[in-house]
Amino acid sequence: MNTLAERLKFLLNEKGLTQEEFANLIGITQPSVFKILNGQTKNPTKIYEIATALGVNIDWLKTGKGEPNLSQEVSAMTSEPDNDHAHRIDVLDVDAAASTDGILNVDYPEIIQSIWFSDVGVGQILGRKSTQGVHIIRVPTDSMMPTISPRDLVFIDTNINQFISDGVYVFKLNGHTFIKRLQRLPDGSLRASSDNKQYEPFAISAELFDTAEIIGKFVSVVSFNPRDL
Description:
Layout: H1 4-15, H2 19-26, H3 30-37, H4 47-54, H5 58-63, H6 73-76, E1 77-78, E2 87-93, E3 103-104, E4 110-117, H7 119-126, E5 134-138, E6 153-157, E7 167-173, E8 176-184, E9 190-193, E10 202-204, H8 206-209, E11 213-222
């Protein structure tokens, strides 16, 4: 595997991900994924998100050198702060209030743990330098598979409190809290959908969405358990 395209094709095949599923996972379009896979895009801007989503070493993904396994992830995060791990992200407990359809009914989830990240860890997972406004939640349902698997840890940016573009949001509506993919339609309404096709999408009128409260927007997802740190 001499090129990024070849390594990415191998990883997608190994994990059974389609181009569309992978595009949703890292927040880009399917045509953008296609350009990476055919070698047209050689230095994708979302390389951190790609490596994190696939659980591989970013240096190996970019260059093919070293080991593919993400050995850096151990040093990227820790349960206690130290000189190398100064970025704190709280894990919010929403498990007990979650229903099987992806609706949450908790207003003030408790902080069950804080995870401390190194500069490298923040860059790998968030693709930026700051963790301000970022929180971690667990998604205990399968409504957003394959983008978010049950028990994955989801990083949400609570600085985003309005709809800015299509993507996965956490939002409150009519007393319930949802984790859904939102898409703006031509008539001004929004389509709320689950990536798991077993769950039916539903429409939200522009008037009704004016009453919604955006809690945050999906940033990234990592498959690891903070209690194992």
